[in-house]
Design brief:
Layout (H helix, E strand, L loop, with lengths): L1 H22 L4 E10 L3 H9 L18 E4 L9 E5 L7 E10 L3 E8 L5 E10 L2 E11 L4 H32 L12 H16 L1
Antiparallel strand pairs: 1-7, 2-3, 3-4, 4-5, 5-6, 6-7
Amino acid sequence: MKVLKAVFIILIVLAALLVIVGLFMPSKFSTERSLVINAPQEQIFEQINNLKNWNNWNAWNRTDPNWQVTYSEALSGVGASYSWVSQNEQIGTGKVTITKSEPMAVVDGTMEFEGMNPAKIYHKLEPQEGGIKVTMGIESELGNNILIKYMFGLWGDKLVGGNYEKSLQALSDYLKANPPAPQTPAEPAANDTTHNHDSTATHASH
């Protein structure tokens, strides 16, 4: 009986310690990853600014092949959004909305998961030697939920950051496998041809 009582007291002390530590854990979470991608900046921006293109590279979109997705009428730019419902606990139910879109430079948005505060997500494109540096990141208020604070405080960077690493590499691989179509040289305008013909004729007459 004394042993059981001692074990019970130890468990209570441990639980109290976990609660106390949780109260002092950060109430904000942020992480980001970057990768230099050797592809045209316009093509990279189009992949990020158009939400339907996220299926080509976004790691979260590949978590559950059976999820149900609904897109807004606008697929790109400010106001574009998509929502999803999934039985997979990793992604659950949520919504992404673009809140800021600067051509060739920035795509910001909000990501909402059921039962959690909305998070800010961002994508930055910065030209540099060797290609375009693409940065993907997230910032979120965790509130006072101790379990969520523990989850993101201990494993958030590895889990969320790991998905960003997969997404960036998948984006690079997709762009490498789908380069932009080569542009065909424009044919000379008709008036230019006529001008050259008249000039040749004039020289011949002389």
